[in-house]
Write a structure and sequence with these properties.
Strand content: 5-15%
Number of helices: 7
Mean pLDDT: 90
Strand order of the largest sheet: 1-2
Length: about 180
Amino acid sequence: MDFLRYAEQAADLVNAPLEDEDDLRTHLGERPWLADRVTGTDVRALRRLQRQLRPAFEADSNHPEDVVRLLNELLARHPVSPFVSGHDAQSWHLHVAERESSVAETLAAEGLMGMAVVVCDLGADRFGCCQAKGCQNVFVDTSPNRSRRYCSERCSSRANVAAFRARRRSAAGPGAATGP
């Protein structure tokens, strides 16, 4: 079981536009066995979970206990029911939600377990919000030195280009013409 991937999927869920069932199916594009089971109830439950998870990503890194408290509250609301699955003795693996669980219950269990393991193994300061102007996305920081500041390479590049242009304008002085 790849708990880091589950934590990253929780961040992807927080970032996903979930207006309707089609949005959720799009979000689950690489998981057709879940996408086929999507209901309107799942969409509503996952929009609520998005709002509940966001504070863990926005938390002040100086207060890890806030993230732990939030995750514990959410784990109590969304119980995890692990089970062993497989097709033969060589392919046994663990799932964190029962087969009969709804799509929302499955995604909640995976995301919360992933985030809880990240907190225990890497620290509560591994969740963050993109610092690019105008971006509200969240991410899991897996960098060795906890230095991630952006949700994607795209946001990082845009921020670096904007900073470069600002430095160039500043160096040119007031009233200097700047190129395109």
